[in-house]
Amino acid sequence: MQVLIKGKNGHRKLSLNRRKAIHEKCLDCSCWHPSEVGECPFTNCDLYPFRTGRGKQNAKDRTKSIKSFCLNCMNGQVGEVSKCQLFDCPLYIYRRGHQESIEQESFTKKRGIFQESILEQRL
Fold first, then answer.
1. Where are the domains of the chain?
2. 35 in Cβ contact with 47 (< 8 Å)
3. What is the pTM of this model?
4. Tens digit of each residue's pLDDT (9 = 90 or more) over 72-91
5. Rounded CA gap, 82 and 12, in Å?
6. Could you give the CA distance from residue 24 to residue 103 in angstroms, rounded to a whole number?
Protein backbone atom coordinates (compact mmCIF):
# COMPACT_ATOMS: atom_id res chain seq x y z
CA MET A 1 0.00 0.00 0.00
CA GLN A 2 1.30 3.45 -0.93
CA VAL A 3 1.39 5.81 2.05
CA LEU A 4 2.56 9.37 2.55
CA ILE A 5 5.18 9.68 5.30
CA LYS A 6 7.51 12.40 6.42
CA GLY A 7 11.01 12.19 5.05
CA LYS A 8 14.26 14.08 5.24
CA ASN A 9 13.21 16.61 2.60
CA GLY A 10 9.49 16.77 3.31
CA HIS A 11 6.75 14.24 2.74
CA ARG A 12 7.09 11.37 0.30
CA LYS A 13 4.92 8.55 -0.93
CA LEU A 14 6.15 4.95 -0.80
CA SER A 15 5.13 1.36 -0.21
CA LEU A 16 5.70 0.20 3.34
CA ASN A 17 5.84 -3.18 4.96
CA ARG A 18 6.48 -3.57 8.69
CA ARG A 19 10.23 -3.98 8.26
CA LYS A 20 10.57 -0.85 6.16
CA ALA A 21 8.17 1.11 8.38
CA ILE A 22 10.35 0.41 11.44
CA HIS A 23 13.49 1.37 9.55
CA GLU A 24 11.86 4.63 8.38
CA LYS A 25 10.79 5.44 11.97
CA CYS A 26 14.35 4.84 13.17
CA LEU A 27 15.71 7.11 10.42
CA ASP A 28 13.26 9.79 11.55
CA CYS A 29 14.40 9.38 15.16
CA SER A 30 18.07 9.68 14.15
CA CYS A 31 17.49 12.85 12.08
CA TRP A 32 17.90 10.90 8.84
CA HIS A 33 21.48 9.73 9.51
CA PRO A 34 21.61 6.05 8.47
CA SER A 35 24.84 5.45 10.40
CA GLU A 36 23.12 6.60 13.59
CA VAL A 37 20.41 3.95 13.17
CA GLY A 38 23.01 1.17 13.32
CA GLU A 39 24.72 2.78 16.32
CA CYS A 40 21.50 3.59 18.18
CA PRO A 41 22.12 3.99 21.93
CA PHE A 42 18.45 3.43 22.88
CA THR A 43 18.62 -0.29 23.57
CA ASN A 44 15.38 -0.19 25.59
CA CYS A 45 13.38 1.04 22.56
CA ASP A 46 10.79 -1.48 21.36
CA LEU A 47 12.03 -1.07 17.78
CA TYR A 48 15.73 -1.51 18.62
CA PRO A 49 16.11 -5.16 17.49
CA PHE A 50 14.52 -4.33 14.13
CA ARG A 51 16.07 -0.91 13.48
CA THR A 52 18.36 -1.83 10.58
CA GLY A 53 15.73 -3.77 8.64
CA ARG A 54 18.25 -6.49 7.88
CA GLY A 55 18.72 -10.08 8.90
CA LYS A 56 16.30 -12.75 9.96
CA GLN A 57 13.42 -11.28 11.94
CA ASN A 58 10.29 -12.80 13.34
CA ALA A 59 7.24 -11.07 11.83
CA LYS A 60 5.13 -11.57 14.97
CA ASP A 61 7.84 -9.98 17.10
CA ARG A 62 7.99 -6.99 14.73
CA THR A 63 4.23 -6.57 15.02
CA LYS A 64 4.37 -6.72 18.83
CA SER A 65 7.19 -4.18 18.85
CA ILE A 66 5.24 -1.73 16.69
CA LYS A 67 2.16 -2.05 18.92
CA SER A 68 4.27 -1.55 22.01
CA PHE A 69 6.09 1.45 20.52
CA CYS A 70 2.76 3.08 19.61
CA LEU A 71 1.40 2.40 23.09
CA ASN A 72 4.48 4.06 24.62
CA CYS A 73 4.07 7.00 22.24
CA MET A 74 0.54 7.46 23.64
CA ASN A 75 1.80 7.30 27.25
CA GLY A 76 0.35 3.84 27.84
CA GLN A 77 -3.21 4.91 26.99
CA VAL A 78 -4.57 1.94 25.01
CA GLY A 79 -7.61 3.82 23.75
CA GLU A 80 -5.48 6.65 22.37
CA VAL A 81 -3.56 4.39 19.99
CA SER A 82 -6.61 3.95 17.76
CA LYS A 83 -7.21 7.73 17.86
CA CYS A 84 -3.67 8.57 16.76
CA GLN A 85 -3.51 11.63 14.49
CA LEU A 86 0.09 11.20 13.30
CA PHE A 87 -0.91 10.23 9.78
CA ASP A 88 2.61 10.76 8.42
CA CYS A 89 4.20 8.35 10.89
CA PRO A 90 5.53 5.25 9.09
CA LEU A 91 4.07 3.05 11.84
CA TYR A 92 0.58 4.57 11.62
CA ILE A 93 -0.98 1.87 9.43
CA TYR A 94 0.41 -0.89 11.69
CA ARG A 95 -0.32 0.70 15.09
CA ARG A 96 -3.08 -1.77 15.97
CA GLY A 97 -1.03 -4.84 15.10
CA HIS A 98 -2.44 -5.31 11.61
CA GLN A 99 -2.33 -3.25 8.48
CA GLU A 100 -5.19 -0.79 8.32
CA SER A 101 -7.49 -1.59 5.46
CA ILE A 102 -7.53 1.13 2.83
CA GLU A 103 -11.28 0.51 2.47
CA GLN A 104 -12.06 1.63 6.01
CA GLU A 105 -14.07 4.78 5.51
CA SER A 106 -12.81 6.83 8.45
CA PHE A 107 -9.18 5.90 7.83
CA THR A 108 -9.41 6.73 4.15
CA LYS A 109 -11.18 10.02 4.81
CA LYS A 110 -8.70 11.20 7.45
CA ARG A 111 -5.65 10.07 5.50
CA GLY A 112 -7.00 11.56 2.27
CA ILE A 113 -7.59 14.95 3.85
CA PHE A 114 -4.08 14.87 5.31
CA GLN A 115 -2.48 13.86 2.00
CA GLU A 116 -4.37 16.55 0.10
CA SER A 117 -3.22 19.23 2.54
CA ILE A 118 0.41 18.13 2.19
CA LEU A 119 0.23 18.08 -1.59
CA GLU A 120 -1.35 21.55 -1.60
CA GLN A 121 1.52 22.87 0.53
CA ARG A 122 4.00 21.66 -2.10
CA LEU A 123 2.31 23.69 -4.84
1. 2-122
2. no
3. 0.79
4. 999 999 999 988 888 889 99
5. 23
6. 24
Q: Among 114, 79, 116, 84, which residue's Cα sits nearest to residue 100? A: 84
The type of residue at 111 is: R
Residue 107: CB partners within 8 Å, gap ≥ 6? 100, 101
How far apart, in whole angstroms, are the C-alpha atoms of residue 62 and residue 46? 9
Report the residue count for the chain: 123
Indicate the range of 15-19, 36-40, 49-53, 101-105 predicted with least confidence: 101-105
Q: Residue 45 and residue 69: Cα distance in Å, rounded?
A: 8
Sign of CA dihedral 64, 67, 71, 72: positive
